[in-house]
Amino acid sequence: MLAIYVTIILVCLSSIVLGQAILRICGYASDTNLAPALGFSALIVLSSAVFWLPGHRVTGGIIVAIVSLLAGAYAIQSGCRPRAAPVITALITLGAVSVPFFVNRHSGIIGVSIDDDFAAHLTWASSLYTPSIDAAVYPYYPLGPHVLAASMAGLLGTTLEPTFMGVLMAIPILAALTARAALARMTALAQVIGGVLVGIPYLVASYLAEGNFKELMMGLILLGFALTLRQLSRDRDWRDRRAVVLGIMVAASMLIDGRVGAVWPLAAASLWVVAELLSAKRMPSWTTTRQAIGFIAIGVLAAFVASLSEFLRLLHFSGNVPGGNVTSYISPSEVLGIWFSGDFRNSPVNVFGAGLFVGLALMVAVYAAVWWIRRRDFAVPAAAASSLILYIGVRQDTGPYLTAKALAMVAAPVMLYLVAPLVSVWNRDIRSDIGRLAVGLVALVFVVGALWSSGFALRYARVNSDERANELVSIAPLTHGEPTLYLAEDDFAFWELRGARLSSPLEYGAASETPFEMRKANAIGAAVDVDSIVPGTLDRFRYLVTTTSQFASEVPANWRLVAATRNFELWRRSGSTVPRSILAEGNAPGALLDCGTSLGRRIQQSSDVAGVWDTAPVGPAFSWSIGATALPANAQGFVTALTGSTLTQNLSLPPGRWEISLAYQSPAHLYLTMGNLRAVIPSDLANIGPFWRVGDVTSTGAPMTATLKLQPMRLDLAEQSAAVGGLAAVSLPRRIDIVPIVRACGRYVDWYAR
């Protein structure tokens, strides 16, 4: 957790001082409050430019730190000092983005199991300095954010997970501070409330809760770009060097989102120019036109130079990445910031109440249009309106996934467009007491609704525990450079076992390096073990990673256990794997051989030996209930329960000692009580399917009640769902005997062979 917050502080401070220095050099006043967005853009550009030097992320991190220190010294010399309102704004926003950690009781990667794209981004970021980078990532994918996170990791000497999370969580803080460029003349209370709302509007909170960073970065830069246009309009100072600021932001947009990234700020600029011309009611003089052409040329040149490090990649990336976790179009009204749902893809439970608030937000949008136009302040409305036009175009040409992204990108500028007119009421901009009271009440309701909506999204964010991830990282050095097969279901395995030539039945963000064939079900929810793989293809691997649960098929004799953790075992192959066949096992490690069937007779005739369990395992048992209410299981046999629930089921085991295993996916810890077993099961958001060893229980032969308590989220601020599979029991010590096939009839068979 410390590395996350150190990264947040470094990114925020570096952005502020870099932005201040660039503004001063380019002829802007140092108190324009444009520094956070501009400085972040400069960080993206700088880290992308220097990362490819020898030493890569360490060199990049050191250079970024040195440049930031020099910029900080320059800013201090120029008289820049922190003020109370922005500090308070930053601290409140920091508290808001920390809500997922607080509610989930631990820090980690946000959004796991909802959107696991972060697994791919970590893998890509770790491949940045390898010759195979273009093979490792989606073709020509923009890598600006990855380079910045890697540079921070190199500077701090830590792994990428905390620095990438820190960069993500810093963005709302920078947006909140940038918003002060439009709020600086208002009261301190208005600056704080307005800044926090702009920093963490509903869709920003929702995308943060999924661990998505591109949309938040694009929103921050678009916000800064629009406010820079606003400053230019106020100053009426069009010296060429001032265009460099806009060029840096456009370049950063492209380094984040490809050449498509430039469309959003350029569309805002185009609409702003039209609004300014219509407001002037006359055509500009030739001198003004020539000055504008020169200004634009310098901005374009600055954008080109600043993006040269990735220019060829930007030219080829279309931005239309297939897939996504948004399968239906979301309501465009979500961009207004009020939506009472923990998941932006779902409608609020109280549709009528939510509709009233959306209607209020639409009224605010109309009032805001009048407020901005009366002041001839067109930059922020131009950014909001142009984004709406682009959203319509994206919706026509693409699917729900990219359309939702288009809305999330503009959430911060739209919120500034809405909230600035409302909080200005505290400046006594409205002379009428009745008018001021009416706007004040609307402002109060809107602010409460917007904050409550963002709180919904942040409270329901899922944060993965790193316990099992750290176990995989600990054994990763043993598999470095070797063909390794991971027999569990974790979208982050390719990152956690980085360095290995990894393959896995379920791939996410990376392709298996060694092909293999499956002979059992290969889908989320399926328990995968060594017998799920065609034996001949097992010999393509040097290492095999399995869970420690005994409720699994016997690993062939030519594989030797070389390392073990609480949850994983690492096996190394020596020699060839003897081919063997299996029965129709489903999610179990074996099945009873019925020699009275035609299939059983054929197996007897074609096989010589079988691996037979001395004592058949029990389960998996799926009869979970809450109180007297039985929980219905889905097609894979899993039930859904909310955190804070208590599930029970009865299980009868023959006398003796038994290992208990469980398949599950849960954002919170689980507590299992069964006989003399008291076990704490760690939260885990990896794909449900594998069985995980829980502990051992001693049975007297009498029925036992298994009680599974799902830990509530902190202060019961949210009720998140968990998937609970069946309980499985294996008699200890487990013994699998090799017997003649004729002696396997009616017994529990793991495998059979000639």
**Average pLDDT value?**
90
Count of the separate structural domains: 3
Structural class: alpha+beta
- Helical coverage, percent range: 40-55%
Strand content: 5-15%
Tell me the overall shape: elongated
Low-confidence stretches: 131-135
The rounded distance between the terminal residues' Cα atoms is 55 Å
Counted beta strands = 20
> How big is the Rg?
30 Å
Tally the helices: 26
Major pleated sheet: 5 strands, mixed
Strand order of the largest sheet: 2-1-3-5-4
Question: What's a quick, concise take on this entry?
Answer:
This protein has 754 residues and is α+β, with helices and mostly antiparallel strands. It contains 26 helices and 20 strands.
Folded structure, characterized:
- With 754 residues, the protein is α+β, with helices and mostly antiparallel strands.
- It has three domains: 2-459, no CATH class; 467-579; 618-734, Jelly Rolls.
- It is built from 26 helices and 20 strands.
- The strands form five sheets. It has a five-stranded mixed β-sheet, with helices on one face. Strands 8, 11, 13, 16 and 18 form a five-stranded antiparallel β-sheet that branches. Strands 6-20-7-19 form a four-stranded antiparallel β-sheet, with no helix packed on it.
- β1 (483-486), α24 (493-496) and β2 (501-503) form a beta-alpha-beta unit.
- The longest helix has 27 residues, at 433-459.
- The chain is elongated, with a radius of gyration of 30 Å.
- Mean pLDDT is 90; it is low at 131-135.
